Amino acid sequence: MTEDEARAAVEAITSPAAMPAIERFVSTVIAESEQQNLVAKPTLSTIWQRHVLDSAQLLPLAANHDGLWVDFGTGAGFPGMIIALATDRPVALIEPRRMRAAFLQAAVDDAGIGHRVAVHQSRVERVAGLAAAVLSARAVASLAELLQSTAHIASMNTLYLLPKGQSATTEVNEAQRRFEGLFHVEQSVTSPESGIVSARQVRQRR
Q1: Cα–Cα distance between 40 and 59 in angstroms, integer?
Q2: Residue 71 · residue 93 · CB < 8 Å
Q3: Which amino acid positions bind S-adenosyl-L-methionine, per UniProt (predicted)?
Q4: How far apart are CA 76 and CA 154, in angstroms?
């Protein structure tokens, strides 16, 4: 997939109206990457495929789940900022690292979406008062660890959307030893070998 094809796919998933804000954010990420290591530098040349489309592909999976979208370990803003820029829904971005949280806050302010998008400089385990309709993360922790760390802001109605790469099916099998629920692995549009874990009605086994 070329970068032009990836950009076109993002526009098809989101809308032409959303593209100027997304393009501005992408340019900001590239520029800021000179100051801090927001994303792996080798991926900057394929940022639309590796990061933007990889984020936008989550949107159709959450089409029937309105409400607060919580993205934790947001880092450079993927997928959280793409979700925030492509929709008008409330979004919470949780990022423990000070410089990255400051970058995210500046991006939110620049986009003029601070009335519905909040940045929390914190670990997700320490965030209180959120009721997530959707939970997402491109985190390296295991699926079971991600479910455990977000249980306090999730309910039986919460939809988890967790890109897990080639380990998706294995991680689901391991997580089901500790958690029950409806688990499904969606194929990633950016990498046929990679999977996105979709889960709902999740609760810890007793």
Answers
A1: 24
A2: yes
A3: 73, 78, 124-125, 138
A4: 24
- 158/182 Cα distance (integer angstroms): 11
Please name the CATH architecture into which domain 3-204 falls: 3-Layer(aba) Sandwich (3.40)
Burial class (CB in 10 A: 0-12, 13-18, 19+), 191: middle
CB distance 90 to 68 below 8 Å: yes
DSSP designation for 63? T
Please indicate if the annotation marks 73 as binding a ligand.
yes
pTM of the model: 0.95
CA proximity to 147, closest of 180, 196, 117: 180
Query: For residue range 135-144, what is the model confidence (pLDDT) as tens digits?
Result: 999 977 899 9
Contact in structure between 163 and 186 (CB atoms under 8 Å): no
Annotated ligand binding at 72? The verdict is no
The answer on whether 124 is annotated among ligand-binding residues is yes
Residue with tokens 């380990």: 167
Tell me the per-residue pLDDT of 83-110, one tens digit each, with 9 for 90 and over. Answer: 999 999 999 999 999 999 999 999 999 9
Pairing of β 159-165 and β 195-204: antiparallel
Residue 185 annotated as lining a ligand binding site: no
